[in-house]
Amino acid sequence: MPPTITAFENPPDRGAGLARDMRVRWALEEVGQPYAVRLVSFTEMKEPAHLGRHPFGQIPTYEEGDLALFETGSIILHLARHHAGLLPGDANARARAITWIFAALNTVEPPILDRETTRLLEGDRSWAAERLHLTEDRIRIRLGQLSAHLRDAEWLDGAFSAGDLVMVSVLLRLRHSSPILDDFANLAAYVARGEARPAYQRAFAAQLAVFAARVPKE
Ligand SMILES: N[C@@H](CCC(=O)N[C@@H](CS)C(=O)NCC(=O)O)C(=O)O
């Protein structure tokens, strides 16, 4: 039985690859692990069956035998530990690659998510414009630091790793809604390198197919 992940039945991003099942699909494709997908509606996500898999009623989840996981960082780390291709063999390099997973999720993604929250959910508040400006300043600081670390390297620490997979996924959230990324040419090129990977392309096509299946053909 292949592992099963969950994804939005009706993706709000219309298959743009922003829903977090995309990261897990990409990791599964990188390691060559076939998988099944259970699509869930917004109502089903908050019902007991799904809450049993994900206490916060979100996607994605990951089921493999009697193991059920939630949180993309944990799922990707699990995959990277049990399959070749996403973590280096050397113990120190492996620890550094795992560090980049945490850095992407804990240090780079939060200001990007803050900006999205303001843009999508708080736009009618009197303080929205000011807060948007503030979050963009914070994003710029983080991207400047990341850009200085990356310099002209291809990936964050030697060969492509799960750390790059998560970091590229996080940065991609910006590219769809803001030109900030373009101010950092090496980061824009880094994201493009991630997107060009055949495993990314397969994952993107698979999640887009879910949305396409819902759009009536003309
Ligand atoms: N920290 C979680 C975040 C999961 C998350 O925010 N999922 C979104 C989709 S990308 C979701 O399910 N949103 C619907 C909701 O929260 O009700 C992870 O990385 O897996």
Automatic annotation (TrEMBL):
Query: Which CDD domains is this protein grouped with?
Result: GST_C_8, GST_N_GTT1_like
Keyword list (alphabetical) reads:
Transferase
Q: Name one GO molecular function term.
A: transferase activity
What is the protein name stated in its UniProt record?
A: Glutathione S-transferase
Q: Which organism is it from?
A: Lutimaribacter pacificus
Q: Where is the GST N-terminal domain?
A: 22-87
